[in-house]
Amino acid sequence: MILDPGPKTRREELYGRGFELTTLIDVVIGQKIPITVIGGVRRVGKTSLILVAENELRSSDRFVIVYLDAGRITRRDQLGEEIARRLRVEPSSDPVEVLHRAKSLERHIVVVLDEVQEASRRTRYEIMDLVEAIAYKIYHSTLILPSSAPGLAKEVAGLEKDGKEMIQSHDVWLNPLRKDDAEALLIDGLRERGISPSPDVVEEAVEFFGAIPGWLVFFGLRLVAGLKPEQIYREAIDTALEEIRRLAPRPQLLLKVLAEGNDSWTKALKALEDLEGRWVSRNGFAKALHYLEKRALVKDYKILDPVYEKAARLLDPSEPLARLGLAPGKGSAARQELGASPSQ
Ligand SMILES: Nc1ncnc2c1ncn2[C@@H]1O[C@H](COP(=O)(O)OP(=O)(O)OP(=O)(O)O)[C@@H](O)[C@H]1O
Ligand SMILES: [Mg+2]
Known about the structure:
The protein starts with 17 loop residues before the first helix and ends in a 6-residue tail after the last helix. It is globular. The chain has helices at about 20-30, 45-55, 80-85, 95-100, 125-135, 150-155, 180-190, 200-210, 215-225, 230-245, 250-260, 265-275, 280-295, 305-315, 320-325, 330-340; strands at about 35-40, 65-70, 110-115, 140-145, 160, 165, 170-175, 300, 300-305. About 40% of the residues are buried. It is an alpha/beta fold. The chain is built from 16 helices and nine strands. The structure holds adenosine-5'-triphosphate and magnesium ion. Adenosine-5'-triphosphate binds near residues 15, 47, 48 and 217.
Protein backbone atom coordinates (compact mmCIF):
# COMPACT_ATOMS: atom_id res chain seq x y z
CA MET A 1 0.00 0.00 0.00
CA ILE A 2 1.55 3.31 -1.09
CA LEU A 3 -0.42 5.54 1.29
CA ASP A 4 0.70 3.74 4.40
CA PRO A 5 1.86 5.80 7.39
CA GLY A 6 4.43 3.14 8.34
CA PRO A 7 7.88 2.89 6.77
CA LYS A 8 8.27 1.01 3.50
CA THR A 9 10.26 -2.22 3.49
CA ARG A 10 10.41 -3.30 -0.16
CA ARG A 11 12.32 -1.70 -3.01
CA GLU A 12 9.28 -1.71 -5.31
CA GLU A 13 7.41 0.42 -2.77
CA LEU A 14 9.99 3.20 -2.79
CA TYR A 15 9.60 6.22 -5.05
CA GLY A 16 12.97 7.56 -6.12
CA ARG A 17 15.85 6.64 -3.81
CA GLY A 18 17.56 4.34 -6.35
CA PHE A 19 20.79 6.27 -6.00
CA GLU A 20 20.55 6.56 -2.21
CA LEU A 21 19.82 2.86 -1.83
CA THR A 22 22.72 1.83 -4.03
CA THR A 23 25.03 4.19 -2.16
CA LEU A 24 23.88 2.85 1.18
CA ILE A 25 24.35 -0.77 0.19
CA ASP A 26 27.51 -0.46 -1.91
CA VAL A 27 29.40 2.29 -0.18
CA VAL A 28 28.32 2.37 3.44
CA ILE A 29 27.61 -1.28 4.01
CA GLY A 30 29.73 -2.86 1.27
CA GLN A 31 32.84 -0.88 2.01
CA LYS A 32 32.30 -1.35 5.71
CA ILE A 33 32.49 2.27 6.77
CA PRO A 34 32.45 1.89 10.56
CA ILE A 35 30.00 4.63 11.55
CA THR A 36 27.53 6.48 9.34
CA VAL A 37 25.02 9.08 10.49
CA ILE A 38 22.07 9.49 8.11
CA GLY A 39 20.44 12.83 8.79
CA GLY A 40 17.23 14.15 7.30
CA VAL A 41 14.14 16.08 8.31
CA ARG A 42 11.28 14.22 9.93
CA ARG A 43 9.20 12.12 7.51
CA VAL A 44 11.78 12.23 4.72
CA GLY A 45 12.09 8.44 4.56
CA LYS A 46 15.18 7.53 6.60
CA THR A 47 13.64 4.46 8.20
CA SER A 48 12.14 3.31 4.90
CA LEU A 49 15.52 3.53 3.18
CA ILE A 50 17.28 1.47 5.81
CA LEU A 51 14.51 -1.14 6.07
CA VAL A 52 14.56 -1.62 2.30
CA ALA A 53 18.35 -2.06 2.47
CA GLU A 54 17.85 -4.62 5.23
CA ASN A 55 15.36 -6.49 3.09
CA GLU A 56 17.66 -6.42 0.07
CA LEU A 57 20.51 -7.88 2.10
CA ARG A 58 18.42 -10.46 3.90
CA SER A 59 19.63 -13.30 1.73
CA SER A 60 23.25 -12.12 1.68
CA ASP A 61 25.80 -14.50 3.11
CA ARG A 62 28.22 -11.61 3.72
CA PHE A 63 26.14 -9.17 5.74
CA VAL A 64 23.52 -9.22 8.40
CA ILE A 65 21.63 -6.07 9.34
CA VAL A 66 20.25 -5.70 12.83
CA TYR A 67 17.70 -2.88 12.84
CA LEU A 68 16.68 -1.45 16.21
CA ASP A 69 14.32 1.41 16.93
CA ALA A 70 16.29 3.11 19.71
CA GLY A 71 13.15 4.68 21.18
CA ARG A 72 12.09 1.19 22.23
CA ILE A 73 15.33 0.49 24.06
CA THR A 74 14.35 1.31 27.60
CA ARG A 75 16.28 -1.16 29.78
CA ARG A 76 20.07 -1.21 30.20
CA ASP A 77 20.30 -4.89 29.29
CA GLN A 78 18.04 -4.58 26.28
CA LEU A 79 20.53 -3.39 23.65
CA GLY A 80 22.78 -6.44 24.02
CA GLU A 81 19.81 -8.79 24.38
CA GLU A 82 18.06 -7.49 21.24
CA ILE A 83 21.20 -7.68 19.09
CA ALA A 84 21.88 -11.22 20.35
CA ARG A 85 18.30 -12.27 19.65
CA ARG A 86 18.43 -10.98 16.07
CA LEU A 87 21.80 -12.64 15.47
CA ARG A 88 20.70 -15.83 17.18
CA VAL A 89 23.77 -15.94 19.39
CA GLU A 90 23.89 -16.52 23.12
CA PRO A 91 22.40 -13.46 24.83
CA SER A 92 24.40 -11.02 26.90
CA SER A 93 23.50 -7.69 28.39
CA ASP A 94 26.79 -6.35 27.03
CA PRO A 95 26.44 -5.45 23.32
CA VAL A 96 30.21 -5.61 22.77
CA GLU A 97 30.25 -9.15 24.13
CA VAL A 98 27.45 -9.98 21.69
CA LEU A 99 29.56 -8.75 18.77
CA HIS A 100 32.38 -10.94 20.06
CA ARG A 101 30.08 -13.96 20.10
CA ALA A 102 28.81 -13.12 16.62
CA LYS A 103 32.31 -13.61 15.19
CA SER A 104 31.43 -17.26 14.79
CA LEU A 105 28.75 -16.29 12.24
CA GLU A 106 31.51 -15.11 9.90
CA ARG A 107 29.32 -12.34 8.61
CA HIS A 108 29.73 -8.61 8.67
CA ILE A 109 27.29 -7.27 11.26
CA VAL A 110 25.55 -3.98 10.52
CA VAL A 111 23.81 -2.52 13.55
CA VAL A 112 21.25 0.20 12.86
CA LEU A 113 20.12 2.32 15.80
CA ASP A 114 17.26 4.41 14.47
CA GLU A 115 16.78 7.79 16.23
CA VAL A 116 19.43 6.96 18.83
CA GLN A 117 18.72 10.24 20.67
CA GLU A 118 15.36 8.75 21.69
CA ALA A 119 16.95 5.87 23.62
CA SER A 120 16.38 5.96 27.34
CA ARG A 121 19.13 7.68 29.35
CA ARG A 122 19.67 4.41 31.22
CA THR A 123 21.04 2.79 28.07
CA ARG A 124 23.57 5.49 27.14
CA TYR A 125 26.57 3.68 28.61
CA GLU A 126 25.88 0.55 26.53
CA ILE A 127 25.33 2.65 23.42
CA MET A 128 28.62 4.50 23.81
CA ASP A 129 30.45 1.25 24.45
CA LEU A 130 29.05 -0.29 21.30
CA VAL A 131 29.89 2.84 19.27
CA GLU A 132 33.47 2.83 20.52
CA ALA A 133 34.01 -0.86 19.81
CA ILE A 134 32.70 -0.44 16.27
CA ALA A 135 34.62 2.82 15.67
CA TYR A 136 37.90 1.15 16.60
CA LYS A 137 37.06 -1.79 14.34
CA ILE A 138 37.29 -4.29 17.15
CA TYR A 139 34.74 -6.63 15.62
CA HIS A 140 34.58 -5.54 11.96
CA SER A 141 31.05 -4.35 12.35
CA THR A 142 29.26 -1.30 11.01
CA LEU A 143 26.95 1.09 12.80
CA ILE A 144 24.33 3.21 11.04
CA LEU A 145 22.53 5.98 12.89
CA PRO A 146 19.54 7.37 10.97
CA SER A 147 18.27 10.44 12.78
CA SER A 148 15.99 13.44 12.41
CA ALA A 149 18.21 15.16 15.00
CA PRO A 150 21.69 14.12 13.82
CA GLY A 151 23.50 16.63 16.02
CA LEU A 152 21.81 15.20 19.10
CA ALA A 153 22.31 11.65 17.90
CA LYS A 154 26.04 12.29 17.66
CA GLU A 155 26.15 13.57 21.22
CA VAL A 156 24.19 10.63 22.59
CA ALA A 157 26.37 8.16 20.71
CA GLY A 158 29.52 9.83 22.05
CA LEU A 159 30.67 10.91 18.58
CA GLU A 160 30.61 14.53 19.65
CA LYS A 161 31.00 16.26 22.98
CA ASP A 162 30.56 20.00 23.58
CA GLY A 163 30.69 20.59 19.84
CA LYS A 164 33.99 18.71 19.45
CA GLU A 165 34.40 15.55 17.43
CA MET A 166 35.35 12.61 19.64
CA ILE A 167 34.91 9.78 17.13
CA GLN A 168 34.88 10.22 13.37
CA SER A 169 31.71 9.42 11.47
CA HIS A 170 30.67 9.45 7.85
CA ASP A 171 27.74 11.88 7.68
CA VAL A 172 25.16 11.78 4.93
CA TRP A 173 22.04 13.79 4.38
CA LEU A 174 18.81 12.45 2.91
CA ASN A 175 17.04 15.06 0.80
CA PRO A 176 13.31 15.13 0.01
CA LEU A 177 12.21 13.35 -3.17
CA ARG A 178 12.64 14.71 -6.66
CA LYS A 179 9.49 16.57 -7.75
CA ASP A 180 8.50 13.96 -10.37
CA ASP A 181 8.94 11.08 -7.91
CA ALA A 182 6.90 12.95 -5.30
CA GLU A 183 4.11 13.55 -7.81
CA ALA A 184 4.15 9.91 -8.90
CA LEU A 185 3.93 8.79 -5.25
CA LEU A 186 0.81 10.87 -4.70
CA ILE A 187 -0.87 10.04 -8.01
CA ASP A 188 -0.25 6.27 -7.71
CA GLY A 189 -1.15 6.28 -4.02
CA LEU A 190 -4.48 7.96 -4.70
CA ARG A 191 -5.25 5.81 -7.76
CA GLU A 192 -4.66 2.72 -5.63
CA ARG A 193 -7.51 4.03 -3.43
CA GLY A 194 -9.77 4.78 -6.40
CA ILE A 195 -9.18 8.52 -6.67
CA SER A 196 -7.90 10.28 -9.80
CA PRO A 197 -6.44 13.55 -8.58
CA SER A 198 -6.28 16.63 -10.79
CA PRO A 199 -2.74 17.62 -11.81
CA ASP A 200 -3.20 20.98 -10.06
CA VAL A 201 -3.99 19.35 -6.71
CA VAL A 202 -0.93 17.11 -7.01
CA GLU A 203 1.41 19.88 -8.06
CA GLU A 204 0.22 22.21 -5.34
CA ALA A 205 0.56 19.54 -2.64
CA VAL A 206 4.08 18.58 -3.71
CA GLU A 207 5.03 22.24 -3.56
CA PHE A 208 3.32 22.80 -0.19
CA PHE A 209 4.95 19.76 1.40
CA GLY A 210 8.36 20.27 -0.22
CA ALA A 211 8.30 16.75 -1.73
CA ILE A 212 8.72 15.20 1.73
CA PRO A 213 7.20 11.73 1.31
CA GLY A 214 5.76 11.40 4.83
CA TRP A 215 3.78 14.61 4.41
CA LEU A 216 2.52 13.43 1.01
CA VAL A 217 1.28 10.21 2.57
CA PHE A 218 -0.38 12.33 5.30
CA PHE A 219 -2.05 14.42 2.57
CA GLY A 220 -3.10 11.44 0.45
CA LEU A 221 -4.68 9.57 3.36
CA ARG A 222 -6.79 12.58 4.29
CA LEU A 223 -7.90 13.20 0.72
CA VAL A 224 -9.05 9.58 0.67
CA ALA A 225 -10.96 10.24 3.90
CA GLY A 226 -12.83 13.04 2.10
CA LEU A 227 -11.07 16.15 3.43
CA LYS A 228 -10.44 19.15 1.19
CA PRO A 229 -6.83 20.15 0.45
CA GLU A 230 -7.20 23.40 2.41
CA GLN A 231 -8.35 21.48 5.50
CA ILE A 232 -5.41 19.10 5.17
CA TYR A 233 -2.91 21.94 4.83
CA ARG A 234 -4.31 23.45 8.00
CA GLU A 235 -4.07 20.11 9.84
CA ALA A 236 -0.46 19.66 8.68
CA ILE A 237 0.41 23.12 9.95
CA ASP A 238 -1.28 22.34 13.28
CA THR A 239 0.71 19.09 13.52
CA ALA A 240 3.95 20.97 12.85
CA LEU A 241 2.92 23.65 15.37
CA GLU A 242 2.45 20.98 18.02
CA GLU A 243 5.94 19.65 17.29
CA ILE A 244 7.40 23.17 17.44
CA ARG A 245 5.75 23.80 20.82
CA ARG A 246 7.71 20.87 22.25
CA LEU A 247 10.99 22.74 21.64
CA ALA A 248 12.69 24.96 24.21
CA PRO A 249 11.18 28.48 24.26
CA ARG A 250 13.95 30.58 22.74
CA PRO A 251 14.48 28.22 19.77
CA GLN A 252 10.72 28.47 19.14
CA LEU A 253 11.02 32.24 18.93
CA LEU A 254 14.09 31.99 16.72
CA LEU A 255 12.22 29.63 14.40
CA LYS A 256 9.48 32.26 14.09
CA VAL A 257 12.04 34.95 13.35
CA LEU A 258 13.68 32.80 10.66
CA ALA A 259 10.28 31.94 9.17
CA GLU A 260 9.67 35.65 8.76
CA GLY A 261 12.62 35.80 6.37
CA ASN A 262 15.44 37.00 8.61
CA ASP A 263 18.07 34.99 6.82
CA SER A 264 21.35 36.15 8.32
CA TRP A 265 22.97 36.30 11.75
CA THR A 266 22.52 40.08 12.02
CA LYS A 267 18.92 40.14 10.81
CA ALA A 268 17.82 37.18 12.90
CA LEU A 269 19.52 38.44 16.06
CA LYS A 270 17.93 41.87 15.68
CA ALA A 271 14.48 40.36 15.03
CA LEU A 272 14.85 38.02 18.04
CA GLU A 273 15.76 41.00 20.21
CA ASP A 274 12.68 42.83 18.94
CA LEU A 275 10.48 39.81 19.66
CA GLU A 276 11.89 39.28 23.15
CA GLY A 277 12.03 43.01 23.73
CA ARG A 278 15.48 42.85 25.28
CA TRP A 279 19.13 42.50 24.48
CA VAL A 280 20.15 38.98 23.47
CA SER A 281 23.75 37.93 23.90
CA ARG A 282 25.60 36.50 20.91
CA ASN A 283 26.21 33.39 22.93
CA GLY A 284 22.50 33.01 23.74
CA PHE A 285 21.62 33.50 20.09
CA ALA A 286 24.26 31.02 18.91
CA LYS A 287 22.97 28.44 21.40
CA ALA A 288 19.40 28.75 20.13
CA LEU A 289 20.56 28.53 16.51
CA HIS A 290 22.69 25.50 17.27
CA TYR A 291 19.74 23.88 19.07
CA LEU A 292 17.70 24.13 15.84
CA GLU A 293 20.58 22.98 13.64
CA LYS A 294 21.25 19.92 15.80
CA ARG A 295 17.62 18.90 15.32
CA ALA A 296 17.85 19.26 11.54
CA LEU A 297 15.25 22.02 11.58
CA VAL A 298 17.42 24.81 10.24
CA LYS A 299 20.42 25.11 7.96
CA ASP A 300 21.99 28.37 6.77
CA TYR A 301 19.22 30.39 8.47
CA LYS A 302 16.59 28.54 6.48
CA ILE A 303 13.87 26.26 7.87
CA LEU A 304 14.27 22.97 6.06
CA ASP A 305 10.70 21.68 6.22
CA PRO A 306 8.30 24.08 4.43
CA VAL A 307 5.41 23.00 6.67
CA TYR A 308 7.43 23.95 9.75
CA GLU A 309 8.23 27.24 8.07
CA LYS A 310 4.55 28.06 7.55
CA ALA A 311 3.70 26.87 11.08
CA ALA A 312 6.50 28.90 12.67
CA ARG A 313 5.23 32.04 10.94
CA LEU A 314 1.84 31.47 12.63
CA LEU A 315 3.32 30.60 16.02
CA ASP A 316 1.85 32.70 18.81
CA PRO A 317 4.95 33.94 20.67
CA SER A 318 3.16 34.66 23.96
CA GLU A 319 3.63 31.15 25.36
CA PRO A 320 7.39 30.81 24.71
CA LEU A 321 7.83 34.42 25.86
CA ALA A 322 5.98 33.63 29.09
CA ARG A 323 8.21 30.60 29.59
CA LEU A 324 11.18 32.94 29.36
CA GLY A 325 9.57 35.13 31.99
CA LEU A 326 8.69 37.82 29.44
CA ALA A 327 5.31 39.27 28.63
CA PRO A 328 4.76 40.14 24.97
CA GLY A 329 5.58 43.77 24.38
CA LYS A 330 6.72 44.29 27.99
CA GLY A 331 10.39 44.07 27.23
CA SER A 332 10.30 46.66 24.43
CA ALA A 333 10.29 49.42 26.99
CA ALA A 334 13.27 47.88 28.78
CA ARG A 335 15.12 47.81 25.51
CA GLN A 336 14.50 51.49 24.94
CA GLU A 337 15.83 52.27 28.40
CA LEU A 338 19.00 50.34 27.63
CA GLY A 339 19.43 52.13 24.33
CA ALA A 340 20.73 50.44 21.20
CA SER A 341 21.80 46.85 21.62
CA PRO A 342 25.58 46.34 21.66
CA SER A 343 25.21 43.51 19.18
CA GLN A 344 24.14 45.75 16.32
N1 LIG B 1 10.71 6.83 -1.07
C1 LIG B 1 9.48 6.68 -0.59
N2 LIG B 1 8.47 6.27 -1.39
C2 LIG B 1 7.23 6.13 -0.90
N3 LIG B 1 6.88 6.36 0.37
C3 LIG B 1 7.83 6.77 1.21
C4 LIG B 1 9.18 6.95 0.78
N4 LIG B 1 9.91 7.35 1.83
C5 LIG B 1 9.07 7.45 2.87
N5 LIG B 1 7.81 7.10 2.51
C6 LIG B 1 6.63 7.14 3.38
O1 LIG B 1 6.74 8.34 4.13
C7 LIG B 1 6.40 8.13 5.50
C8 LIG B 1 7.60 8.43 6.38
O2 LIG B 1 8.61 7.49 6.08
P1 LIG B 1 9.70 7.04 7.15
O3 LIG B 1 9.03 6.63 8.42
O4 LIG B 1 10.58 6.07 6.48
O5 LIG B 1 10.45 8.43 7.34
P2 LIG B 1 11.47 8.85 8.48
O6 LIG B 1 12.39 9.86 7.88
O7 LIG B 1 12.08 7.67 9.11
O8 LIG B 1 10.46 9.57 9.48
P3 LIG B 1 10.70 9.95 11.02
O9 LIG B 1 11.56 11.18 10.99
O10 LIG B 1 9.32 10.24 11.53
O11 LIG B 1 11.37 8.79 11.68
C9 LIG B 1 5.88 6.69 5.55
O12 LIG B 1 4.50 6.75 5.31
C10 LIG B 1 6.57 6.00 4.39
O13 LIG B 1 5.80 4.93 3.93
MG1 LIG C 1 12.18 7.07 11.10
